[in-house]
Amino acid sequence: MSAAMDTESTYSGYSHYSGHSKKAHRQGRDRHKSPRSKDGSRSEKSVTIQTPPAEPLLGNDASRAEEGQDDNWGETTTAITGTSEHSISQEDIARISKDLEDSVGLDCKRYLGLTVAAVLGLLVFLTPIAFILLPQILWRDDLEPCGTVCEGLFISVAFKLLILLIGTWALFFRQPKADLPRVFVFRALLLVLIFLFVFSYWLFYGVRILDSKDTNYQGIVQYAVSLVDALLFIHYLAIVLLELRQLQPMFTVKVVRSTDGESRYYSLGPLSIQRAALVVLENYYRDFTVYNPALLTASKSRAAKHMAGLKVYNVDGPGNNASGQSRAMIAAAARRRDSSHNELYYEEADHERRVRKRRARLVVAVEEAFTHIKRLQAEEQQKAPGEMMDPREAAQAIFPSMARALQKYLRTTRQQQYRSMESILQHLSFCITNNMTPKAFLERYLNPGPTLQYDRDRWFSKQWTLVSEEAVTSGLQDGVVFVLKCLDFSLVVNVKKIPFIKLSEEFIDPKSHKFVLRLQSETSV
Asked: Would you identify the family this protein belongs to, as annotated (predicted)?
């Protein structure tokens, strides 16, 4: 039990960091953001895409790790282990209030569009029923008898409205995946078309039927049937425009992450720029590895160390400008570049060696820990009721034996800011519950997975800004470039049109496959 407490206290560095490092991280982020606000001279249009607010996948309180963190952060940082589990600052209060205001505005905008669509849909479904019932209510005695024909038309209208209701629910009333900066053009055109169509039918019905009190009830019912048929055709048009039109690939987009250069290729149909950006973001969370700023600190520190060793002397006097000094430093750094590649080579080789060494230790520790667990069968549970444990207790029992090896491996691979002790315990109990092997447990930590695998608080990207020189409602074209920016990095998207392929046919007669054996004096035949 004491070993478990010692390991837990050692592992508490996963979720607590010093306030000084947080402040330095915020100041560095502010310095990184300041030059972006000076690009107002560019003729670009900037809009915002924000995904709907959602609860975190795991309820842990692990903090975000700093970029400039060294490999021994667990021993050098101050861990707060008092009774308080939550802390908040003035910056956090301001950020939370801003997020609440933004979420309220986005919710109002989203629900307003949904309300308008719901009201219009209710009007569409009630209109055919009103066309049939109003003559029965207002001038029932003057109507001509219809008989079996009207009854058959009633059944037809009922089933057509049911089909239309199901199709409308499946096509339009779905959970929104994101909040787009501009309206969807085709959806807005369909809503306008439906409104004008129903309004024209009501106008004709009021002038030709209500004012004159038409007694031909069969004609009135057929008029309602024609309205339902036209609505079914409009629904078919909506399926073609909203769903089928974008299925045929016409463009290939290359998505590059600006920080580490990771790239992916996707095929898209004839979409608008904002909907193409939404498709890119959906694939980004699934295909791209999670953004880890700690992996970028090695190259930055190496370049800073090389530049720090240079000294510039001004031999021309104080009147010389600073540009000459900068050129001298760049030239000196270029001369030292010949020896820097050796340092890079040995640093990478040493890092790979340490990763392989700690990976082997982690694999052995996890396999030994899993050997202490045995799933009890139904008849064995009755024999030793006092020794049984649930998956959570079993995970807490074997976790101390593997905690140190796992902690060292995560530090070496710069993954410690994404893995809290609570999340590891939950994953371990999940593997024990489903009778998974040690390799299945280690797969999450040995192979960096996509962004969706991690907690939402570790994504570093919740709100995106779409920057494009073209209007975001315009369609994709060959050579279009747009950028998706978030707080720490950006995704550069380059669009290329799939070329027109001309395929010809050449017929080969099967009887033309004839061969001759050539004999030479050196052959063994």
From this structure: Belongs to the Vang family.
